[in-house]
Amino acid sequence: MLYPQRFGQFTREHADTVAALLCGLLLFFGWFALHLGWLGLAFLLLPAAYVIGGYESAREGLTTLFKEKELDVDLLMIVAAIGAASLGLWRREYHLIIDGAILILIFAISGALEGYAMQRTERSIRSLMSLTPDTARVLHQGREEEVAISQLKVGDEIVVKPGELIPTDGIILSGYSTLNQAAITGESLPVEKTVGEEVFAGTLNGYGALQIKVHKPAQSSLIQRVIRLVEQAQTEAPPSQEFIDRFEKGYAKVIVVAGILLATLPPFLWGWDWETTIYRALTFLVVASPCALMAAIMPTLLSGIANGARQGILFKNGAQLEKIGKVRAIAFDKTGTLTTGQVQVFQVISVSEYTKDDVLKVAASVESSSEHPIGKAIVQAAGDLDWVGAIQVQAIPGQGIVGIAQEEQVIVGNAIFVQQYVTNLPEELREIVQSWEQEGKTVVWVAQGNREAEVIGVIAIADEVRSQAAATITRLKKLGVEQIVMLTGDNQETAHSVAKAVGIDRVYAQLLPEDKLDVIRRLQQQYQTVAMVGDGINDAPALAQASVGIAMGVSGSDVALETADIVLMADRLEKIAVAIHLGRRSQLIVKQNVVVALGFIMLLLVGNFLGNINLPIGVIGHEGSTVLVTLSGLRLLR
Questions:
Q1: Torsion angle in degrees (nearest 10) through CA of 195, 196, 200, 204
Q2: Quick check: 472 and 577 in contact, CB under 8 A?
Q3: What is the rounded distance in angstroms from the CA atom of residue 156 to the CA atom of residue 91?
Q4: What span, in angstroms and rounded, lies between the C-alpha atoms of 574 and 529?
Q5: Which of 509, 202, 216 is nearest to 334 (CA)?
Q6: What is the distance between the alpha carbons of residues 432 and 455, in angstroms, rounded to a whole number?
Q7: Closest to 453 in 3D by CA, of 420, 486, 493
Q8: How far apart are CA 208 and CA 197, in angstroms?
């Protein structure tokens, strides 16, 4: 029973593809039967191909006709195909039935390809919803009770234990901890939170237990606002799509009206007989069908998509390949995009007779007992060195950590904390530390000694800038991108230091997700086509709003990957320039193909009007132009 269920699920999820495949098979066997002279079998198979392949187009075309009082290309293709088949039966030229079936098959394949680019919003919302737990621990008369998030009320007090997700926005009543807010605000380092400070739903609690008071309805939390913003941004149709829809309807109207006039007026104006008139009118419908015009776009975009995939660039649909070539402004997230998103030891400076390795070994001896990300970075940097873990380790949240290593007291922490144990801080280190802090780096002082501890060095902790970031920004400027900005939830100092390192002049710092969305909208007002490059949940609304959303494939969150239109599979920023180049090439080839397709249509229409072509030649010209522009589009595979 399992296989029938799977088959049924597959056919439901890929109905358009299955219809196109069946249409193609029936068309082939119908042609084969016709070739062998088995007319009965051919007349059984070919109508089935028409119905299966053309059902969806006919349904959409008729729905548009009756409900919206509009004509579109779907209905035009069906009319042209049925017209060719009718003429084939009338004149007993049965190959014309094959031509009509080919027209339907081409359109069925196009519809199947477009279907795979739809319905991303629902998946994005499901991914966002998984960021918050379903229940929260509410304190009620001194006892903890599991309550559904939807039932939380303003004023409720909830308990969040170490390592758990914050269930809803609130204010800390008691407790102290570090919270990883990178997914929401984009801050590169976990933030220390204590009594009176606000916490956000979807952020990860660190080592401390927290008691939180709900100060707003759960549906008004930051993460819920992100969800609504993603929904809104993804349902707004871009102007280019509206233009394509209008063009399609206008083209269909012109062709249908012209076909009707051609089928009725010539006998009265030029004395044509009715058989010739109908013959020319049906030929007109075939040669005027926009198959070549439609094929001028999709094969080109699909080839560009395949080319990009070979280079680690995943385009989620062909429209984005076109748009990336028109980008005039690009906004970059900082953490995890321009930087690696991993906290690392940036630099170590020692004093007196100590070496940098000595500083790292001493610091690692106490930090090995810490769960703080800074401590983990120090331990990782000292991984290849020979050091011994400290004993009697005591961490003071937000300040530092002390312990005993090799019978000497070790103190690691910020300047204020270390000054409680040492006489003074070396003057030669103060200026260096000040410059580090101005660059947005976190500085850790290291001291040791029992009676009179002394500073032995300092360690700078930073989120490392990606090695290819600066070269990518330079390349984008050479490609003519007019505006490149950086958006981050991090502080001004860190933001400007990273921007300076990579060559970005315009910086927006301390932004929430909705702030990033506003910046993207302002950029779109000025530059129209804007790309957004990000990796976190906090980037999802901006990625959805941007003309082209680009996500980092390795470091990116599930929501960012679902929301984005383009994914850099290996997190290689330099591939953005490659994507823009592919987009511009696709635009050029599409324009060339459109000119060729329209040229063929005009040539065939003139030939048909002058009586110099018959229907088979019209079909050959029509299909030949389709094949020609398709092959032209395949040039992007190189």
A1: -10
A2: yes
A3: 81
A4: 20
A5: 509
A6: 14
A7: 420
A8: 14
Assess contact for 329 and 526: CB atoms under 8 A.
yes
Averaged pLDDT, 99-112: 74
Determine which of 36-45, 207-216, 229-238, 294-303 has the lowest per-residue pLDDT on average.
229-238
Between 80-94, 119-133, 471-485, the lowest mean confidence (pLDDT) is in: 119-133
Question: In angstroms, rounded to a whole number, what is the distance separating the alpha carbons of residues 211 and 522?
Answer: 39
pLDDT tens, position by position, 394-419: 988 778 899 999 889 999 998 889 99
DSSP string covering 474-509: HHHHHTT--EEEEE-SS-HHHHHHHHHHHT--EEE-
Listed residue (128, 288, 111) closest to 222, CA to CA: 128
Q: What pLDDT is recorded for position 182? A: 66
What digits encode the pLDDT tens for the residues 512-550?
888 899 999 999 999 999 999 988 777 888 888 999 999
Report the mean per-residue pLDDT for the chain: 81
Annotation says 558 is catalytic: no
Q: CA-to-CA distance for 411 and 449, rounded, in angstroms?
A: 9
DSSP string spanning 22-60? HHHHHHHHHHHHHHTT-HHHHHHHHHHHHHHHHHHHHHH
- Distance between CA atoms of residues 506 and 534, nearest Å: 17
Helices within 289-369 (DSSP H only)? 291-295, 298-310, 318-324, 356-367
Pairing of strands 408-413, 400-405: antiparallel
How far, in Å, CA of 82 to CA of 88, rounded?
A: 10
Catalytic residue among 72, 333, 515, 535: 333
Contact at 8 Å (CB) between 354 and 458?
no
CA diameter of the chain = 118
CA angle 593–595–597, rounded 5-degree value: 65
The CA distance from 159 to 143, in Å, is 10
Which conformational region is residue 156 in: left (phi greater than 0), alpha (psi within -120 to 50 degrees), or beta? beta
| Sign of the Cα pseudo-torsion (502, 505, 506, 507, in order) | positive
**CA 454 – CA 44 distance, rounded (Å):** 95
Closest by CA position to 187, among listed 439, 491, 441: 491
φ and ψ at residue 194, rounded to 5 degrees: -140, -170
DSSP three-state, residue 427: helix
- For 555-589, the three-class secondary structure string (H helix, E strand, C coil) is CCCHHHHHHCCEEECCCCCCHHHHHHHHHHHHHHH
* pLDDT 10s digits, 316-347: 777 788 889 999 999 998 878 888 877 889 89
